[in-house]
Amino acid sequence: MSTASLDGKTQRLSRLAKKFRRRLRSPSTRLAAFAGFLTYTCYAYAHGSWTNPALIGVAVLFALFMPTYTNLSNKAELWANNRFGFVTAGRLGRFVPQFAFNLAVFAVMLHGGGMSQSGVATVGGIAGAALITSLASQGLQYLGAYLFARGIGDLNRNVLLGLCINTVLTALGTAGLPYGREAFLLLGLGLGGILMTVGILSDLRSVFAPQGGIGMYFGTFNPFHNTHLAILKRAMAERKLDKIVIHPTLIPRFYAEAFRKGEIRVGRLRDGFQIYERTDKADVNVDYFPTGNVFLPPETRRALIELAVAEAGLGDRVEVIFLREIYDTRGFQGVIAEIKKRNPGVRLHSLHGTDFGGMLVRSICDECGWIYPWRILRRDNVSATAIRNGAKGMTPVVVTDVLGQIARNLPEVTAAGRRFRNDNGVLIEGGWQTARAAAPT
Question: Which of 169, 204, 239 is the last residue in one of the domains?
């Protein structure tokens, strides 16, 4: 064998070893291992099955594949959301495969002797146990997502922690232990039932919304494109809105926390866009970029929205706000509270798409009071991702012009009578005057 072949094989083995070590260091991997151990311990204690092969096999399955399982659960909900555009559909998209999975696991455990027949019978057999477990899991996973939306934890790890809590109560409940069964039923029927009810009410508000009031449109707008403009016009026409308030996403707390921990970084600039990338400290089980890793700076996205809205003649009916301090400390929850404060007693509507970011915004609005959702199913071919990859003809004229100037790295960007200093893709209005004054003569 040649020296080159040996070197290539050594390099591949080194990469595999490095990848394996990173996976072992992943908090999600360790939490999954704990979930497997917890599953084994709780069921073995509750059902007296310490040496049962079926229980040991299920526990090992949980320990190895729980991070993958949680990722698939998130993707199933995202698919259903994007396909149907209703909260209830998304939650059913998560619930149905989980119910099928739990039903299969309980069947294996029961027929393999890992669970007691009498204990499972007290909660309606394996079908009842799977139903209640799945409902409880839905509620706990929703709490995990709720915390994630407020900058606490990571979506996948929060979901995984919820599954661990559910494991303990399910083990005690299916064994018929005192108070365990009641806690299991209360969590499943109570929390799961409340979650489904909240989703149904949100969907009813969406379908039977009254007209009039103020629309709120939140998103990355990365960049602002023709479909964003069409959404504004259509929502104003269908809901007879007095005006629409737009606030772009700044740096989500999830990203800010990952930057602080050194898990992601801005790797390079391309045509004014910042390219985020993972570092060696990143958790291999975490999806850091659910909406992509290529971003225009928030100041630039704000300027593009303002320019496009003005060009479309909507400046008197669309207000672009930029509440950096409020957003950085309280997220969109704080922005909504500020909009309510500025418009007391006014009916509010939330505009959103059905992708990950749109449905996340929808859930935030649902938690902030009786807000009427207005959603649009994305069925056109206009895509911010495609635009960032160089697609043409998808943005308003002024946006296309400004992006072109940024791509040419012009020190000053002009559009619609406004002038900006271009600081590596960050547009600062009026900054060109300061830069010129400071330049040597």
Answer: 204
